[in-house]
Write the C-alpha cells for this entry.
Amino acid sequence: MKPDPNGPADTRVMVILHDALRRDLARTRRVLTAPSPPADTRRVAIAEHVIWMMEYLRFHHHAEDEFLWPLMRRLNPGAGVLLDQMDADHARIAPEIDRLTAAARACRADDSPQAREAMVAALDGLEAALLPHLRREEDEMMPVVSRTITRRQWDDWGHDIVKNKPTLELAREVPWVIDGLDDERYRVATGALPAVPRFILLHALAARYRRASATR
C-alpha cells in the first residue's frame, strides 16, 4: 500500500546517510593507522575520497541549515532549543571539516608518516565533534522532525536536493550511500530517488564507484 503523503515524515534515510559517513571515516582510520602504509595510488585515492566526503558533509549541513531547520522553526516553535543545538553543532563541526580537508590534501601529495599522522589527528578532531552530533540528530531531532512535517514535505526536500545535483555527482554519491546496506535499508535509500534517475544511477553509472572503491 502506498504511504500516506500527509502522514509523518519517514526520516530513516538520514541515519543511512550518517552511517555512510561513519563507515568510511572508520575505514580511513584503519588504513592510515595500519602497520604498513598504503601504496601511493591507494593513499591518493583515499585522500581524494575524504576530500569529497567533506564536500558532501558541507552540502548536507547547508541543506539542513537553509531549508529543514527554518521549516521546523516555523512549524514547531517549541523545538527551538533543539534547533539551536543543531546550529551550534554545525558551527563547531565546520572548522574540523576544513582541517581534515587540508590534511587530506597534504597527505594526497606527501607520503610521509608525518602527513598520515596529521590526517589521523584531523580525523580525531572531526569525529569528536561530528559523531555526537549525528547521534543527537538521529535520537532527538529526527523524531521531532517526523512529528512536525509530513512525508510529502520531507520527500519534496529530498527531491529538490537530487534535482539540483549534477548526474556525475549523484553517480558517486548514491552507490556510496548504499554500499553494504541490507535489503530493507537499500529499499529505503533507493526509494528516495525518482524512478528514472534511480535506474540510471544504480545500473548505468555504478561501475565508476566500484572502480574507485576497489582502488581505495
Observations:
- The chain has a mean pLDDT of 92.
- Residues 12-215 form a domain with the Four Helix Bundle (Hemerythrin (Met), subunit A) fold (CATH 1.20.120).
- Residues 40-75 form the longest helix (36 residues).
